[in-house]
RNA polymerase sigma-70 factor (Sigma-E family)
Amino acid sequence: MTADAAGAQFTVVAVSDDEEFTAYVTAALPRLRRLAYVLCGDAHRGDDVVQIAITRLYTHWRKARAADDLDAYARTVLVRAFLNEHRRRWSLVRLVGGSAELPHPLLPPPDVETREVVWTALRRVPPRARAVLVLRFVADLPVAEVARNLRCSESTVKSQTAQGLAALRRLLGKEDR
């Protein structure tokens, strides 16, 4: 028991690092899953990337919680996990011929035909440009924050955005617009 300046008695409850981490991840998990799903275009692979990101976040929890913006820190870890996983050769292996994906529970139901066309095109955009497009237009982050997340300059983010959008337009057959 401890007393405050007015003499009132209260109990100090220390929250452990694990409890603090668990509380943060519980609150942030829907946002992280949605971002990973959009980056990967696949709910199962997105969940794998989230798991990797959460594991890395746990191992660096003291540093992460000291960050100015914990959500930005977690988002950066997630995007880097996505980019690292994409670089691995096994990520190119498909175990099934068709799409076995179930609708992701965190996204509103889109027009199926449009969604498939856009997803197919987005999957063909290089991973780094895809990450920039998702952070800019899905996560709605400003250029400066995307640059911090990806550890690059703002001009790189702008050029990757332009290149990614040009690639999407080309893939969607909208080059002349």
Q: What stands out?
A: The CA atoms of residues 32 and 50 lie 7 Å apart. The domain at 110-177 is CATH 1.10.10.10 (Arc Repressor Mutant, subunit A). Residues 10-14 have pLDDT under 50 and may be disordered.
